[in-house]
């Protein structure tokens, strides 16, 4: 059944049409063999214990399943990563073929289905991370454009182990981004009208998608001035110059540059030479784009200029590390991975496959929690806490057709490609006041965790465990129900069940105190036929605990 | 939301009032607090600041427009098709009378009336500055400037922190709250946000309490007064109390503990309150947020609060596109929400005790980009309330020429008032003495005027 979701050779992007740029070629079904671990200070590729297997699954998937823990324990981490990277991509667009009236529901439903069931978990997880860096959002003008959003997400999936320079070109010419950050229809200056080019895309491309605001060292630390204020990477003049570069593009089928009726949200935008500014532009590091070039030539020069800036490696790598592994990587960890980003063993700059593998194989990813247990790790994103529960107790009736959970943003402050602004649901440098801020650490995910959102998220976890398991009929019709058959078989042996839940939900790191509370709570449900209640109570108390709120 | 049957919103004020005594009687903590200090009764002195944050950089230059012919012509030359037409402006009289004639956007008409009633004042050309700055000094780079001018995130944080050029450890709201929390019983309610985390109220050991515009949420399935749920709810609470050595687990438990405590404590107080009858504008998130703020202010006596700061937020001001279509709608929604809030404060008799002010990342460029504007700097802002010396424009209207003495970078306006002066005026009204003001606002001493005079 799963094969229905998977894509045959190169066919995942059937909608990319005939106007694709040369960079838009679909990923081959089977990725080329990756280089062996090439990062300095790699962890030894020794067989994983079951708890270590669970840990790498938390970093690389939407939730650890017992069968995966069992399958990869006893093997080295590298074989898991290689196997995952070789998987064909599962594309969001392909689930959307039955477009109905309720397209938002369908779009979210397909995303849940892939997050929970797709085999290419690492690619799905990396694409989700990329979607939180290269942000477009359904909140706003794109709210009714689900096929377009899915197509954008598929682009991220295609490039998850691809190349940074190719990705930003596709992003720049994406009509979805063109709409979101108003590059579509941006035109050359009109001095008579006091009109300058729109700076929106130029600014956010620099600030959020490539080099960031502050000069960085290769280890991710900022370069500061004498007052300790970070040195800026660019100024307003640069923004204005890039704004001039990104003039003269519009929807592929636009019939008019100013007020077109046609809106092709799938194919890359195309150039309109008469609206492109052909003046000279001075870009980063003093690089000059000569006058008289075409829109595509200017764009190629500008993206090369950006992609070759020294900040790209540390800026992108650090964010990927914080999304996958830990909020506060050491400078050594960042530096080692940036070296691979800057030049992998094939001599390529910006290869995401090599970078992701370096992130996961570095000794800090594999062992950092042992050296710094109090500060390592990160707060889990709310969406992941829900997918982790569903994956841990997969329904046994095959792939669940309908998750019936579309308005997820209300409860979890997150939904795929639906952040409140281009600054994502949370920003990389958010630091929760209190012990975290006082220790000079950051905690990005905390930006969306406050009393209100914690209450709604906790309530969702409770509803999805205590009220939606296969021994309880729920009032929710099609909503997915977790399957606790396996746990019911173990229920007679309390210690065995708790050992099992400890491994499955916490990777074996449950505290003795929590274990005691869980056991005591189970004791309170002591009437006849209370087994399923006891199991569900145990699951809820564990998944809602502060221990389960973090990925260590 | 499709699980209303599972999660109960405490619709504040919607329940019939059973008497404050009964509601309080259910909570020994509150009863004790009341008994211990009668100065927390409704009549005790109370002051609140409400920050209305306009996300994305609001276009003050479409709100307040010079209308003398020379100035208006200069404005239209700069703004071209984005200039607000004379027929869209309502004539403002400024008490101090040194601004020439001014027009106020008719899309914000309810605020025009508050202004004319002298309950709202305008602040001309305010922005983030470290020291007084001229066009020449900007261009020569001869004075320190806020880091990362024109960047949304940086200028928003700068506005909310005001700790110098770069990023600080705390917001000016949080630093003030640290001084103010000693006034009251529940220091966790000194800072309340209706829009989640923010920089203004964070730091210095402070973190705002987050409520939703729809009310106070309750944990599903964790009601300690329900016999079936009680063992689970108590176990859940005990798990949150366990020692956590990991900083992330520990911070997570902190938020949960406050959520647990507040649903138990605050919910009972708020449920018993009289509903506010002023009609709330529909489909207006800012109005709904402000409605919740009014509910909390109405309960301040029972909660034992004497100084509070509230944060609400309206989105959508970053008009790079479709400005002529969007801007009128933004002003309508904003004005409708603010005038509604002022009416609720009148209803509960708190007008003189509450000062509401707007803040935003930055103003917008004078020049257009086709059908919108880009990120600017100086901006016109508003302050509202019974304590405001309204009906006046404070500060100096900038010259609107793209090449004029106030403009840099193709039509971005250098501020003539600093946001730190604005903040200082607000905090002085809240009761912060001078020495504390200068601690909270370290660059204040760089400016001649530390009180702009718009509050009595």
Description:
- The complex is a heterodimer of chains A (552) and B (456).
- By secondary structure, chain A is mainly alpha-helical.
- Helices cover 44% and strands 2% of the residues of chain A.
- Chain A folds into three domains: 2-172 and 310-373, no CATH class; 180-307, no CATH class; 382-418 and 450-551, no CATH class.
- In chain A, the strands form three sheets. Chain A has a two-stranded antiparallel sheet with strand order 1-2. Chain A has a two-stranded antiparallel ribbon with strand order 3-4. Chain A has a two-stranded antiparallel sheet with strand order 5-6.
- Chain A is globular, with a radius of gyration of 24 Å.
- In chain A, 58% of the residues are buried.
- By secondary structure, chain B is α/β, with parallel strands linked by helices.
- In chain B, 35% of the residues lie in helices and 15% in strands.
- Chain B has helices at 20-25, 28-36, 69-79, 109-116, 135-140, 152-161, 172-180, 230-241, 247-271, 285-298, 300-303, 323-347, 419-430, 434-440, and strands at 47-54, 64-66, 89-92, 102-105, 120-127, 191-193, 209-210, 307-314, 354-360, 364-368, 373-375, 379-384, 393-394, 407-408, 412-413, 417-418.
- In chain B, 57% of the residues are buried.
- Chains A and B meet through helix 10, helix 11, strand 5, helix 19 and helix 20 of A and helix 3, helix 6, strand 7, helix 8 and helix 9 of B.
């Amino acid at each position: 059944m799963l094969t229905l979701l998977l894509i045959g050779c190169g066919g995942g992007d059937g909608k990319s049409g005939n106007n694709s740029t040369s960079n838009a070629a679909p990923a081959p079904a089977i990725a080329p063999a990756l280089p062996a671990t090439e990062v300095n200070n790699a962890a030894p590729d020794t067989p994983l214990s079951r708890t270590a297997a669970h840990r790498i699954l938390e970093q690389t998937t939407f939730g650890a399943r017992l069968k995966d823990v069992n399958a990869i324990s006893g093997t080295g981490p590298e074989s898991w990563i290689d196997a995952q990277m070789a998987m064909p991509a599962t594309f969001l667009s392909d689930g959307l073929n039955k477009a109905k009236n309720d397209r938002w529901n369908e779009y979210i439903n397909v995303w849940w289905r892939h997050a929970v069931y797709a085999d290419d978990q690492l690619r799905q997880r990396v694409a989700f991370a990329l979607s939180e860096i290269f942000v477009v959002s359904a909140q706003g003008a794109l709210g009714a454009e689900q096929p377009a959003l899915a197509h954008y997400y598929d682009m991220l999936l295609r490039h998850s182990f691809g190349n940074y320079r190719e990705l930003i070109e596709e992003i720049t010419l994406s009509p979805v981004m063109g709409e979101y950050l108003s590059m579509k229809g941006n035109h050359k200056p009109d001095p008579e009208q006091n009109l300058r080019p729109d700076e929106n895309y130029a600014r956010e491309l620099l600030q959020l998608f490539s080099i960031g605001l502050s000069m960085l060292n290769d280890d991710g630390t900022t370069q500061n001035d004498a007052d300790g204020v970070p040195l800026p990477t660019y100024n307003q003049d640069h923004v204005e110059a890039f704004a001039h570069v990104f003039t003269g593009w519009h929807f592929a089928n636009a019939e008019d540059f100013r007020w077109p009726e046609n809106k092709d949200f799938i194919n890359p935008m195309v150039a309109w030479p008469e609206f492109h500014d052909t003046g000279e532009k001075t870009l980063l590091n003093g690089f000059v784009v000569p006058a008289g070039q075409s829109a595509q030539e200017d764009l190629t020069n500008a993206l090369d200029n950006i992609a070759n800036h020294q900040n790209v490696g540390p800026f992108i790598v650090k964010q990927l590390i914080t999304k996958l592994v830990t909020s506060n990587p050491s400078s050594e960890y960042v530096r080692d991975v940036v070296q691979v980003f800057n030049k992998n063993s094939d001599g390529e700059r910006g290869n995401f496959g090599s970078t992701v593998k370096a992130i996961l194989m570095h000794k800090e990813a594999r062992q950092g929690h042992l050296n710094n247990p109090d500060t390592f790790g990160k707060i889990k994103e709310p969406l992941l806490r829900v997918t982790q529960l569903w994956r841990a107790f997969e329904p046994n009736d095959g792939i669940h057709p309908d998750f019936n959970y579309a308005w997820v943003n209300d409860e979890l402050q997150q939904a795929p490609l639906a952040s409140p602004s281009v600054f994502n649901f949370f920003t990389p440098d958010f630091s929760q006041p209190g012990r975290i801020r006082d220790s000079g650490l950051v905690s990005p995910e905390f930006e969306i965790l406050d009393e209100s959102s914690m209450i709604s998220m906790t309530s969702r976890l409770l509803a999805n465990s205590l009220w939606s398991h296969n021994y309880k009929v729920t009032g929710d019709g099609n909503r997915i129900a977790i399957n606790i058959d396996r746990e019911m078989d173990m229920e007679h042996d309390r210690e065995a069940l708790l050992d099992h839940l400890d491994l499955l939900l916490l990777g074996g790191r449950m505290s003795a105190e929590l274990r005691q509370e869980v056991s005591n709570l189970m004791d309170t449900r002591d009437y006849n036929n209370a087994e399923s209640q006891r199991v569900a109570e145990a699951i809820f108390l564990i998944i809602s605990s502060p221990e389960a709120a973090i990925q260590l | 939301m499709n699980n209303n049957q599972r999660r109960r919103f405490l619709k504040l004020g919607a329940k019939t009032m059973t008497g404050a005594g009964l509601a309080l009687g259910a909570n020994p903590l509150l009863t004790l607090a009341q008994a211990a200090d009668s100065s927390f009764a409704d009549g005790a002195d109370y002051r609140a600041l409400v920050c209305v944050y306009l996300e994305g950089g609001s276009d003050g230059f479409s709100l307040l427009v010079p209308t003398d012919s020379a100035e208006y012509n200069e404005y239209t030359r700069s703004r071209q098709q984005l200039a607000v037409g004379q027929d869209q402006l309502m004539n403002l009289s400024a008490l101090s009378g040194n601004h020439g004639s001014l027009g106020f956007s008719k899309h914000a008409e309810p605020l025009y009336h508050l202004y004319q009633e002298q309950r709202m004042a305008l602040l001309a050309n305010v922005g983030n500055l470290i020291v007084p700055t001229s066009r020449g000094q900007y261009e020569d780079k001869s004075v320190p400037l806020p880091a990362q001018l024109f960047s949304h995130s940086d200028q928003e944080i700068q506005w909310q922190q005001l700790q110098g050029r770069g990023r600080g450890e705390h917001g000016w709201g949080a630093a003030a709250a640290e001084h103010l929390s000693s006034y009251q019983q529940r220091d966790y309610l000194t800072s309340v946000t209706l829009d989640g985390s923010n920089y203004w109220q964070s730091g210095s050991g402070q973190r705002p309490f987050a409520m939703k515009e729809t009310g106070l949420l309750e944990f599903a399935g964790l009601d300690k007064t329900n016999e079936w749920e009680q063992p689970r709810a108590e176990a859940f609470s005990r798990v949150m109390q366990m020692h956590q050595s990991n900083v992330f687990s520990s911070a997570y438990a902190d938020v949960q503990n406050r959520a647990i405590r507040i649903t138990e404590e605050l919910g009972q107080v708020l449920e018993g309150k009289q509903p506010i009858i002023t009609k709330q504008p529909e489909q207006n998130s800012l109005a709904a947020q402000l409605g919740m703020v009014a509910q909390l202010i109405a309960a301040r006596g029972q909660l034992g609060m004497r100084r509070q700061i509230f944060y609400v937020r309206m989105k959508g001001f970053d008009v790079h596109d479709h400005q002529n279509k969007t801007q009128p709608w933004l002003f309508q929604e904003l004005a409708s929400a603010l005038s509604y809030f002022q009416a609720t404060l009148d209803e509960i008799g708190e007008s003189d005790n509450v000062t509401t002010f707007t803040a935003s990342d930055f103003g917008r460029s004078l020049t257009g980009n086709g059908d919108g504007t880009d990120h600017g700097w100086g901006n016109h802002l508003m302050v509202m309330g019974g304590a405001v010396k309204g009906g006046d424009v404070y500060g100096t209207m900038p010259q609107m020429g793209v090449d004029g003495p106030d403009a840099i970078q193709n039509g971005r306006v250098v501020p003539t008032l600093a946001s730190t002066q604005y903040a200082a005026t607000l905090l002085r009204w809240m009761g912060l003495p001078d020495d504390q003001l200068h601690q909270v606002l370290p660059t204040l001493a760089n400016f001649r005027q530390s009180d702009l005079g718009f509050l009595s």
